[in-house]
Design brief:
The protein is mainly α and 305 residues long. It has one domain. The longest helix has 38 residues. The protein is globular and about 60 Å long.
């Protein structure tokens, strides 16, 4: 279900970063997008869908009022760092802030609609497990690749993302960047082990939710607690990967032209402006009484859901 909660954060971020003329319509329809995905995963009944839609509206009202300004500030910081070539330390600081934003959104999502877990039937939980298995299947091809094939896939994927930010690289840059990215460790397999262990722990919680109840704190422990066995096994590897990537990115920035760095700066500033504009629009909307769906009572952190 963390995959589903992630949709709330991802939808909000990706819609802001789209930077297209339809951004306002897309952002305002984000609750519908997430609701449809959750319904697909569980096959909810009409009452559950009604409750979910109300809670999602509350979640996105919170996101508009509380998070957009943080996104603007984060994007402005990233633009400043990118202007003269981002350093490894700057990248890691931004990475930390992004993870904090993700954690805030996940915690808020659990607060907003985590209590719907107790309404799930055994069949709906099985539907979700099938949904998870299908989403996992996209990684099976990667696990079946040879070490050389995995490296080609990883490097190509990251290279394409860098070109999206900085523009096309020349032949000299391509050779240097590809060689540098080959030195970044493979995090896919340990991430998949972590993902599967967390998923199984979450299913166990769901299976007992309807009979004994669960608290928000229990949901957060499964999905966010760094002291779980699977988190303790994965976290050092995650840190090592991002540190290695940050150092690689610092090296890569030395080979970029001023125009390429400016392209990234311009994109980040544009995204910051979009976040600021949406924030101002939603602030104005709030002043005329818009608050989405009527707010439900918020369960206590340790209250049984």
């Amino acid at each position: 279900m963390k995959h589903i909660y992630r949709l709330c954060f991802t939808a909000a971020c990706s819609l802001i970063l789209a930077g297209c003329s339809m951004i306002d319509i897309a952002y305002n329809n984000a609750p519908t997008l997430v609701s449809s995905e959750i319904d697909d995963a569980f096959d909810l009944d009409s009452l559950q869908n009604t409750q979910l839609d109300s809670r999602l509206e509350q979640f996105f009202v919170w996101h508009r009022e509380e998070e957009l300004i943080r996104y603007q500030q984060l994007l402005d910081q990233a633009a400043l760092a990118a202007a003269d070539g981002i350093t490894a330390a700057e990248f890691m600081a931004l990475n930390r802030d992004i993870r904090l934003a993700w954690r805030r959104s996940l915690e808020k999502a659990i607060d907003s609609f985590g209590d719907l877990a107790i309404t799930l039937t055994p069949q709906q939980i099985e539907n979700y497990q099938q949904y998870h298995r299908e989403s996992f299947s996209e990684f099976n091809d990667y696990l079946e690749k040879s070490a050389q094939q995995r490296e080609i896939f990883r490097v190509s994927r990251t290279y394409d993302r860098l070109e999206d930010w900085y523009g096309d690289f020349d032949e000299f840059q391509e050779d240097k960047i590809v060689l540098r990215l080959q030195q970044v460790p493979d995090i896919y397999e340990p991430w998949l082990r972590y993902r599967e262990a967390r998923q199984q722990a979450f299913i166990r919680v769901l299976n007992r939710a309807a009979t004994t109840g669960i608290s928000q704190a229990e949901l957060k422990a499964v999905l966010l607690d760094p002291s779980t066995e699977y988190s303790l096994a994965y976290e050092p590897l995650r840190q090592s990967y991002w540190q290695a990537f940050a150092i690689a990115l610092e090296d890569i920035n030395r080979w970029l032209t001023r125009e390429q760095r400016q392209r990234a700066v311009n994109k980040l500033r544009k995204y910051a402006q979009v976040a600021a504009r949406l924030g101002r629009q939603d602030a104005a909307r709030s002043q005329v009484g818009y608050r989405g769906s009527p707010a439900a009572d918020k369960p206590g952190e340790n209250r049984q859901l």
